[in-house]
Amino acid sequence: MSDTGATRNAVTRRGALLLALAAPGAVTAQAAPALRVEVWQDPNCGCCEGWARHMRAAGFEVAVHQVADVRRVKVARGIAEALWSCHTAVVEGYTVEGHVPAADVRRLLAERPRAQGLAAPGMPASAPGMDIPGTRYTVVLFGTPDGDRTWARH
Question: In terms of domains, do 45 and 2 share one?
């Protein structure tokens, strides 16, 4: 074998070794489980499915439970009626009511405030899943020891 061939083989082996050493970390990062979001919604609600798609696109694993009366879930979770929207979700023990953006949910999970969860009251037209731009809305952090407060404005 020529010097050029031996050098090429050494470089190829070194590259394969570096790739093998890098691969376990890459596999571990890819294998990290997505955060699971449980959603309760009316089976006829298209905007709820739009929000579920938004959450999936943001990397969440979304399990949808279609129920005839979502109000029962809201009452069971202790959500004040003023905060109600069309669907209710739970992620990592927090309640997410309505069309809350995925970024707000990620921030909630990163900061872990003492609260019941987040709500986008009503059905804000420009919220994820509704997707009609131009309407400002507020996301509320609720169930804190100090009462509800604004979490984000969109």
Answer: no
